[in-house]
Structure formats: C-alpha cells, structure tokens
Specification:
- By secondary structure, the chain is mainly β.
- The chain has one domain (about 1-745): Maltoporin, Chain A (Beta Barrel).
- Helix content is about 5%, strand content about 50%.
- It starts with a helix and ends with a strand.
Length: about 750
C-alpha cells in the first residue's frame, strides 16, 4: 500500500509535464559552470573544457569542480564532480537521486562537521557511533559502512573518523544502491567529499569564528601560483580551533593542514596532488546512552547538565590522507582520469556510555572502548569516457575501474568491564565520576583483525535512440576478498567472491530542462564487520546483494530546481542476537519503501529556499524473532524534512537573514516498536552582512542554532550497528542552543 501511494504521488507530479509538447533530447550535456565560491579558474582551465561544437557532449568530459550559477542562485548546483569511475555529469542527466551541498552553504551556516552539514539534506540519515564526530552517513534508511559508502575526490576512504569541512568544495550525496557506479557498496548511497583545488588567481582569505561557549577558530584559505605563468598552482587550508563547548569542563581542539597542488605540463593535461592532516580531540561531551528492549527511552535530558559526560573521557583522533590524480584530454570528446589515494585513521576512543537500568532514568556509566583504533586504506580510480555515434544512435560511453584495500585493526588487550566501570547515577542527578584507578585504557597494542580488498571494472553506455528517449546501462564486475585474523595473527576465515552489479535505466526528456527516469539496480557489497561484543567480533561476513527500483523526475526551471523520486529497496540484514548464539550474521531482510523530494531556488527576488522531504517506511521481514517481524526499523522516522529560507534585504544591500526548520517525526525506540521517541523540531536563525573593511571584501555571520533550546535524541539505533559492547539499543543527544559568529575577509 505504501508503495502504491508513492507511485501515485510521483504519477500526479509527472502528469502535467508529460502532457507538454516535446523537445529534442539532450543527453548528456556537461555544461559545467565554475563555482562562485572557487573564485576564477586558472587560465588553462578554459582549455580543459570540451568543444561544444562536437557531435555530442560527454558526461565527465570536464574536470572543473562543479558549482552554483552565480551569486544570485548560490545554492543551485548543476553538476556532480565524480560518479566514481563514471566521472562528472550534469545532475539533470543522471537517472538517480543526487543532492549537493556546496561550500558556500557550509560557510554561511557555519557548519564545522559532517553531522551539522547533513541536516540540510533530509534525504540523509546518519548513525552516530561513539560521539558527534564519528558517524556513518546513509540514505533511504539503510545501514552505512565504515568505508564502502564514502569517497574523497571519487576514491574510497574511511568515514568513521574526524572529517573537516573547511577543506571541502562540496559534498555530493548519491542516494540508494550505488554498486554499479561506484563498485561494491552498502545500499546506503555514496557520499563524495570534493577537495578544494587551486583557484588560479591569488586568494588570501581569513576566517575568525567564535561561539558563546568559548570556542575560538581561526582558518586561512590561501591560493596562488609558483613561478612564471600558471604551470604550478597551490592552495593551503590551515585551521586551529580550541575551547570549551556547551558542556562544562569540556574540551574541543581541532587542527587542520591541507595542501592542494595542480601541475599543468600541457594545455590538455593536469596533475593534481592533495594532502591533508586533521587532528581532533573532544572530551567532556555528554556520553551516549544504551537501554534494553523492555525499557522505554526517556525524554532527552538537557545536554548541558554536568555529569552526563566526564571531563577526562572522549576521543582523540587523527585523519591523514594523500592522493594523486592525472587528467588528460584526448581530443574534444574524450577524457582520461587516473588516480590513487592512501589514508590512515587513528582513533583513541574512551567515551562514557550511560546504560539505563530502569524506566526511572537510573543508569550505570562506563567507559566505552575496544573499538577499532586504526583504519588504513589504499584506493584507486581510472576511467576513459567519451562520445561517438553509430548511425542515428548516439553513445556516451565510459570504461573504468575502481578498487581499494581496507585494513582494520583491533585492540590486543581489551579491558575488563570492571576496570572501566565509573559508577551509577540518574538523569535527574547526573554525577561526575573519578577516572578509573588504572587510568584510561591504552590502545597502542593492536593487531590486524581484517583485510578486505575489492577491484572492479565499470562499463556504462547512455544510448540515445529516439529524439526524446535514451537507455543507460551501467554494469560493474567486481572481485572481492576478505581475510579475518585472530590476535595471534592466525588466519581465521577467508571469503572470495566475484559478481556483477547491473543498473539499467530508461530516460525520457520531453525538454532539455526536464528528465523522467526509471532505474533498477542489483548491488553486490562487502559483508558487514561483526560488532564489538558479538561472538565473532571484528570478523567480516561474506558479501551479499541488494535490489532497488527507483522512479524519478527532475526539473531545471528558470528559478527552481525540483527533484522527486519514489523507491523500494531490499537487503539482507545482519545483527547479533545476545538471546541466542550472539553471532553476528544474516537474520532477516530490511525492506525500505519511500519518497524523496527537494526544491531549491528563488521564491521571489528577495527570498531563496533550499528544502527537502523524505517519507520512509522501513520494515524488517523474515526475522527469526516473531516479536520483531514486520516491525519498523529502530530510529527511522516516517517523515523527515528541512527547509532553509534566506531573505535578501533590498533596502540594505549585503544583508541576508535566514531561518532553518528541521523536523523529524516520531521514531521506534526498540525492535518490537512498543516504545517511541517523540517527534521534534529544531529552528535556527541567522544573518550575514557583506561589506568592505579597509577596501577588502568581508562577510560577518551570526547564527543562533536551536533557538528554542529543544532537547532531543539526535539518533537512535541498535547497538549491533554502532558497535556498543552492551548488547542494548543506543541513543545520542542533540546539541543545545548555541550562538556562533564569524568574520571572513579576503585580501
């Protein structure tokens, strides 16, 4: 019934447009604009653009970072930077749901981490892991992975570490089942982080930020060229942030250094080098909560209360990565891209976990640890794409490959539960506990617990066979291997598997600015990693497969961009049941049906909006427990929405006011759906003023987030996803009211 309702809603939306007169098919067309936030491109960038007089434009045939159409429409982005080995392409020509968060938006809302940024994409969910800086982002209510669903400039990375926003040009979100495009992945979509590249002109920008809780941030963004001409260009991003957060006796320390270098040996070639080092320490923040299936999740307490966290407990992490990418234009209609990336993530996690013991709010607090202290990955990408014709039939074809080798390490000596027990308290009267007598558990003694590798070949052909119709066939053939090891170094289990992941699409374009599509996907993915506390913890499961149907529409109107998609996807579901054998394994199916909609653009000359809505029905089927069979998945709301409105004050040029409203419906609090967390709304207010200081452009920003100081649970989920060692459900607190201000100056 839910599927039928979604299909009817899509049909009602498509019907008026389908009745319009037809126009010529324009598939595809790169037409990538240079972002306003990226300043002017280097002079050689013009040579990298494709000749529009060629037989047909090429998806991915331009290597500029995509961007908005100008200051008048700052959040409307036309193109995606990387569809993995399929390269860049116009959003309008992609038969999948894709959302982009440009750097301009991230700067204007003063977002500092991925968690804060993703609230502007209600099509996205995320599961917090061991704090607000560690999360698995996901789409369409599916479980994300440590690394399968995240990319940096098209190459695979681990996401479950600290991820800075200040070095990014945009975040690209591909919804749903992505394996045929990106290689084996969880059906949680793909999040591609796009690095800032050199601007080609001199850029000297400084940002100073401060919030009312005493956190001071200084950020410098510097770009220029070396030597004569523009053969070598560079861009630095440097950041230092330090202070006390909303929690008393807390500490937040952030240090970032990134370097991007572009070398242009010829007009038709570019070599891109990128290096980043990000250190983050976060202590004293509220701990996360766990509770049993028979307990009702209480109302969210005030996160500023002393005692919900411990001053000495938290996370100390480092994320280092380096990449090299080579781009070569091969004539007007073909392009070759080859790249490689290496990343290391070190994590020392000792966050407090407060285990609720009754419905009165009493809890026992312990240090949560034993999580993977190190992730390492090497990944690669290479693709060749271009266009040609066979008679009256046109082709936009890509041949590519992508792969990675991911290493997970585990703590050799896991501390006993008694050694990390802090004490007991209640939500009504939280307590600050002494540090354990033995001190914080050490993670320096490690062993390699899992090595997973995958490599695939990707083929894609968009075939235009009628004036208004096209068929896109994407196919990935992948080879995967997983090796699990014991503490002694002995090999315990090995999985080898290969298979196809197809994704055919039927595309109809009655106008150049309108696209309707129907897409089917069958996706192979690496097996999940068994969670801490399970009988087979840190062991990876054999790969398995997901299927998805998606029906969508996209409209690129003069003042608005609209997108609508209905979907149904099904995947095997793995978890550990402590009531039986406590083995992490496949024990049912998760079937998600839903509708996504987004609108961005100008309502009037003064009013702009960026909005989205997700309606989702996530059901567990064929579970081994009758009590949970047919129930909705824990923590997923049926409705989630966000709308950001900006008002440009005509009587005061340079002044912009904003209001953002985030809504989340009630969510199941346990697997049996006998308890629910209530719905909540969070409202943010902001203003910015563009001016000149000593002749230099400057922007002053002010934001009051969570104006009403709403107390809410930001995420709820089963611990088998987050890796809790208690076997209970988990809940994390949302942030309280915070006032933030920043000043940006360009010299």
């Amino acid at each position: 019934m839910f599927t039928k309702r979604c299909a009817c809603l899509v049909a009602m939306t498509l019907a008026p447009a389908l009745s319009l007169g037809a126009a010529s098919l324009a598939l595809p067309d790169p037409a990538v604009d240079t972002p306003a936030t990226q300043a002017k491109p280097a002079k050689q960038d013009k040579a990298m653009k494709q000749d529009k007089a060629g037989p047909r434009a090429v998806p991915g045939a331009t290597v500029e970072v995509s961007g908005s159409r100008g200051a008048d429409e700052i959040y409307r982005v036309e193109s995606v930077n990387s569809l993995g080995p399929l390269g860049s392409a116009r959003l309008l020509d992609i038969p999948n749901s894709i959302t982009i968060l440009p750097a301009t938006l991230l700067e204007n809302v003063q977002a500092t981490n991925v968690r804060e940024a993703l609230k502007y994409v209600p099509l996205v969910q995320f599961q917090e892991m061991q704090g607000s800086e560690i999360l698995r982002p996901a789409t369409r209510g599916m479980q994300g992975s440590n690394y399968q669903n995240t990319r940096l400039d098209g190459m695979t990375i681990f996401v479950t570490g600290p991820n800075p926003l200040e070095s990014l040009q945009q975040i690209e979100v591909f919804s749903g089942v992505p394996a045929s495009v990106f290689g084996p992945s969880n059906p949680a979509g793909v999040f591609n982080f796009v690095s800032k590249r050199p601007t080609g002109d001199i850029l000297r920008r400084v940002d100073l930020g401060y919030d009312d809780k005493n956190i001071l941030v200084a950020h410098a963004d510097l770009s220029g060229t070396l030597g004569a001409g523009d053969t070598v260009a560079y861009r630095f991003n440097l950041l230092d942030g330090h202070g006390t957060s909303f929690a008393s006796n807390s500490l937040l320390d952030r240090k970032l250094a990134t370097l991007a270098v572009d070398v242009r040996p010829t007009r038709e070639a570019r070599l891109e080098f990128t290096f980043s080092n990000y250190d983050l320490t976060q202590k004293g923040y509220p701990g996360w909560f766990t509770y049993g299936e028979k307990l009702a999740l209480p109302a969210a307490p005030d996160p500023t209360k002393a005692g919900l966290g411990q001053a000495y407990a938290g996370v100390d992490m480092r994320n280092q990565n380096g990449s090299l990418r080579y781009i070569q234009n091969l004539g007007p209609n073909w392009i070759l891209v080859v790249g490689g990336l290496a990343q290391g993530v070190d994590r020392n996690i000792n966050t407090p976990v407060n285990n609720l013991t009754d419905n009165a709010g009493d809890y026992t607090s312990s240090l949560a640890n034993g999580f993977a202290p190190h992730f390492g990955i090497t990944s690669d990408i290479a693709y060749l794409n271009g266009t040609f014709s066979t008679g009256s039939i046109t082709h936009a074809m890509t041949v590519g490959t992508t792969g990675c080798k991911a290493i997970s390490k585990a703590v050799l000596n896991t501390p006993t539960a008694a050694s990390v027990l802090l004490g007991s308290a209640s939500l009504a009267d939280p307590m600050a506990f002494n540090e354990p007598k033995a001190g914080l558990p050490d993670v320096k003694d490690q062993y390699t617990s899992s090595v997973a590798s995958q490599q695939g070949v990707n083929l894609c052909d968009t075939i235009g066979f009628l004036p208004h119709w096209a068929v896109k066939v994407a196919l990935s053939q992948d080879w995967m291997q997983t090796r699990n090891y014991a503490k002694t170094g002995a090999l315990t289990t090995t999985y080898n598997k290969n298979g196809l992941s197809p994704m055919p699409s039927l595309i109809y374009k009655p106008y150049d600015n309108t696209t309707y599509y129907l897409t089917y996907a069958s996706s192979l993915q690496q097996g999940d990693l068994a969670t801490a506390g399970s009988a087979n913890q840190n062991q990876a499961l054999s790969p398995y497969r997901t299927t998805q149907y998606e029906l969508g529409a996209k409209y690129n109107l003069p003042k608005f961009d609209l997108a609508l998609a209905a979907f149904k996807l099904e995947r095997p579901f793995a978890y550990a049941n402590p009531a039986t054998d406590n083995v992490f394994k496949i024990q049912g199916n998760q079937v998600n049906t839903g509708l996504e909609a987004s609108v961005s653009g100008k309502v009037t000359e003064s009013l702009r909006i960026l909005s989205g809505l997700t309606v989702l029905d996530s059901v567990m089927q064929d579970t081994l427990t009758p009590l949970t069979n047919g129930r909705n998945y824990v923590g997923l709301p049926k409705v989630k929405g966000n709308i950001l409105c900006e008002y440009w004050v005509a009587s005061a040029p340079g002044l912009v006011g904003s209001v953002d409203w985030q809504y989340t419906a009630k969510r199941p609090g346990n697997d049996a759906n006998t308890t629910f967390a209530p719905s909540y709304s969070v409202v943010d207010l902001g203003a910015r003023y563009s001016m000149r200081i000593a002749g230099n452009p400057a922007t002053l920003r002010l934001a009051v987030n969570n104006v009403t100081d709403t107390h809410y649970w930001s995420t709820i989920g089963p611990s088998t996803i987050t890796g809790a060692n208690t076997g209970n459900l988990t809940a994390h607190l949302g942030a309280p009211r915070t006032v933030a201000a920043s000043l940006s100056m360009t010299f």
